[in-house]
Write a structure and sequence with these properties.
It contains 24 helices and 14 strands. The protein has 759 residues and is an alpha+beta fold. It folds into 6 domains: 65 residues; 51 residues; 100 residues, no CATH class; 147 residues; 207 residues, no CATH class; 143 residues. Strand 13 and strand 14 form a beta hairpin. Helix 21 packs antiparallel against helix 22 and helix 23 packs antiparallel against helix 24.
Length: 759
């Protein structure tokens, strides 16, 4: 017992020290990468992990006398195996870089040393690069994969091999990863790693840990199953609801020259290459209008009308004050109104040219020379708006004319240099199409415009080949573009969530404990119905993005926010039967995450995945992580609700029962959350090993995910930290633990960067 008493402070101390050191290292790495990396590579950091492992072994050994479940020992044994695997990798692995030109044979590579130095090492065989090629999405310049065709020469025998993104070459304990390529496309760069023992041990630990985390939820003798047998689960908590407000469309005002709505809509159903993918011109129109005007419409005109108006009546629109300057700082510094015409940046509306040329030039020069304050960032954003309009007028953005050449389809703008393989008739059509449309638009001959648009549609179908989206994809994108679905959902969900939570708290704080009233029952049914409609609508949005993009929509911050909101609502329905209050939590949190998806740093545009992300492990890794984040967000709401009850509830007996019920709900969410988080982290490690050659590189996102896992894992040890058995202490801990999750998702993505900066 004395040994255990002495060991626990060592265990707790090393645990806290490691969490703090890792957090500090990520911050230092953002300022000085070498300094941050030196912490992870230092013997003291490795020693801290060794101390934690040794103390854990002692505590586990002493715990053998108590009747613990098998899951308890498997979980901690798995973590120890992973640490052993990391030690084996640290001591026995080696790697480096290899650069090959087409036709060149290599017998050695550059091996990395400590301190950033390199030296030449021999390969046990020879490698020759036969060919290298970049595979593109059909009809675009977006790469799908980078593929190197190699020949392995070993003892006079030759063996063909292929290395590409997420496809490694493993030969005699050495693994080769496609890392980069030469700008001329005639050379390839590979990363090499040799770590057979470390990978085997680490993978065994990952497999054991993932099995243990999942089994933790089903173990008949485990803590989670005991929670499910808690007597409070038969009672649950009640919740109420009120109706949401209606949405109103803005009044239509026709203030400038534009096509009729139907003609503009037909025109924007044509396909264009935008964001390196083929999509309806309508998608570009919506993004164009949002960037220029700050919304999907302008003075009652649709996005399609705004875009077509800028194309066919460019001079009139150049004098129209439709460029919205969102920055109040910029407006005050330059004495500008909120809406400015494009001509104002170059002169006045009468046509006089400014003496200083382009109005933003002096500030842009300062910005490009390193002045990066808010004013200059706003200048750069405004310049982007102006240049977007100018490029549209020049026609460079309208890559609408497909042409097959060299076995692939290339889409051209009317101002591009057309290939010699294009026939004279096709060339004339490309060069004159917009001129013909312009003439008919000026003459208000919209029937003739419709015939030209139909002819263009047939031209695209005939020439686009496989680059043309399927009709179901085009239809899905049209439906997706038809309304600001996510905006509507976050307004409705937030309104419903706040009102429901307010009514729920009011009911919890009632002094009398009577049964729910008729109003409560009616409100709850309406609330449940509204939540179901919101969930189905969000499911539709995700399904549409999945259909349009062709992959699971988990490619960027915007899409992961949608996934988080979806999982939160799903779990709200799962736990609603036992805890009615969780439905209010679900709507409130999902509305919050949908609102967050609208912040300026998140891009809602649908794009092709980066080649490194084209792995089935991505969908599993990100979806499981988002599931964990959703559950942990619900535990945060349980904690904040408990603190509100603690402050407002005057009946001490009832308050204790309510805090206990919220703690039970929180723990029911916590166990699957930690299981999902751990599974997601280590599935991500396997993916990293396949994609980058290292299953753990101390990237800021990896590090903070581990910190979050370690912080929340503390709450799963109430027998070691007995104070967490008290409901109030537990809820306070869960509220502060949520800060680690916020740092992991938002802080790392937008402050620290790293390999996960695409998120």
């Amino acid at each position: 017992m004395k040994t255990l008493t002495m060991t626990k402070p060592i265990l707790y101390g090393s645990y806290v020290v490691l969490v703090v050191v890792m957090a500090i290292a990520t911050l230092l790495e953002n300022c000085d990468e070498a300094l941050g990396r030196s912490i992870y590579a230092s013997p003291l950091f490795a020693a801290a992990w060794a101390v934690l492992a040794a103390a854990s072994v002692v505590v586990l050994w002493r715990a053998c006398r108590s009747r613990r479940s098998l899951t308890f020992y498997l979980l901690h044994a798995a973590l120890l195996v992973i640490l052993v695997g990391a030690l084996v990798t640290r001591l026995g692995s080696h790697g480096g870089r290899l650069h090959l030109r087409i036709g060149e044979t290599a017998y050695c590579y550059m091996e990395a040393e400590d301190g950033g130095r390199w030296h030449e090492s021999s390969l046990p065989y020879a490698l020759r690069l036969d060919t290298f090629n970049v595979v593109y999405h059909e009809g675009t310049a977006a790469p799908v994969d980078y593929v190197s065709h190699l020949t392995v020469i070993d003892g006079g025998k030759e063996q063909k091999a292929v290395v590409s993104m997420n496809r490694i070459l493993s030969y005699k304990s050495m693994r080769f990863y496609q890392t980069s390529y030469d700008e001329d496309g005639r050379g390839s760069v590979f990363t090499l790693y040799a770590d057979p023992a470390g990978i085997a041990v680490s993978y065994a630990g990952y497999a054991l840990l993932i099995f243990s985390l999942i089994w933790m939820l089903f173990d008949p003798r485990g803590a989670y199953r005991r929670l499910l047998r808690h007597p409070l689960l038969g009672k649950g908590l009640s919740v109420a609801i009120v109706a949401a407000a209606a949405m109103f469309a803005p009044q239509r005002v026709q203030a400038q020259t534009a096509l009729p709505e139907k003609t503009a809509r037909d025109f924007c159903r044509l396909q264009v290459v935008y964001n390196d993918r083929v999509c309806p011109l309508q998608t570009f129109a919506i993004d164009f209008t949002k960037k220029i005007c700050g919304s999907r419409s302008y003075n009652g005109l649709t996005a399609e009308q705004v875009l077509s108006g800028c194309i066919f009546w460019g001079d009139e629109w150049a004098a129209e004050p439709f460029i919205r300057i969102s920055s109040s700082l910029l407006r005050s510094r330059l004495s500008w109104p909120e809406n400015v015409a494009a001509k104002a940046f170059f002169g006045n509306l009468s046509g006089a040219i400014r003496d200083d040329g382009y109005a933003l030039t002096p500030y842009l020069l300062e910005y490009y020379h390193g002045v990066n304050d808010k004013f200059h960032r706003d200048i750069a954003k405004t310049d982007e708006q102006v240049m977007l309009f100018m490029e549209l007028r020049r026609g460079t953005l309208l890559r609408m004319f497909p042409h097959g050449e060299g076995g692939r389809t290339v889409w051209y703008a009317p101002t591009d240099r057309l290939p010699s393989s294009m026939s004279e008739g096709e060339r004339l059509f490309v060069q004159n199409f917009f001129n013909l449309l312009y003439q008919e638009a000026k003459a208000r001959n919209y029937a003739a415009m419709g015939r030209l648009i139909d002819k263009m549609h047939r031209y695209q179908l005939r020439n686009a080949g496989r680059s043309m989206p399927l009709p179901v994809v085009t239809k899905a994108e049209t439906v997706y573009n038809s309304a600001p679905w996510v905006t509507i959902l976050f307004i409705c969900n937030l309104a419903l969530g706040f009102l429901a939570l307010g009514l729920t708290l009011a009911r919890i704080l009632r002094r009398n404990s009577r049964e729910p009233s008729r109003f409560d029952d009616m409100a709850r049914k309406f609330f449940l119905s509204a939540a179901a409609v919101a969930f189905l609508a969000l499911t539709l949005v995700i399904a549409l993005r999945w259909t349009i993009g062709g992959t699971v929509p988990l490619n960027n911050g915007y899409e992961t926010m949608l996934a988080m909101a979806w999982f939160i609502q799903l779990f709200a329905f799962v736990f609603y039967r036992r805890f009615h209050i969780v439905l209010a939590f679900g709507l409130l949190l999902s509305g919050f995450f949908l609102l967050v998806s609208h912040i300026s740093l998140m891009d809602p545009q649908i794009t092709h995945r980066m080649p490194v992300l084209n792995s089935p492990l991505l969908s599993l890794h990100v979806s499981v992580i988002m599931m964990a984040y959703a559950l942990l967000s619900l535990t945060f709401l349980c904690g904040t609700t408990a603190l509100i009850v603690r402050l407002l509830q005057r009946d001490t007996h009832r308050m204790h029962g309510q805090l206990l019920a919220l703690q039970l709900l929180s723990r029911l969410l916590l166990y699957p959350a930690v299981a999902a988080l751990g599974t997601g982290i280590f599935v991500g490690a396997i993916w990293a090993n396949v994609s980058w050659g290292q299953y753990w590189s101390w990237d800021p996102k990896e590090t903070w995910a581990l910190i979050t896992f370690m912080v929340y894992a503390v709450a799963l040890h109430p027998t070691l930290i007995r104070r967490l058995n008290a409901p109030l202490a537990y809820h306070i801990f869960m509220v502060f633990a949520f800060l680690a999750l916020l740092m992991t998702y938002f802080g790392v993505n937008y402050l620290l960067g790293g390999m996960h900066s695409y998120a």
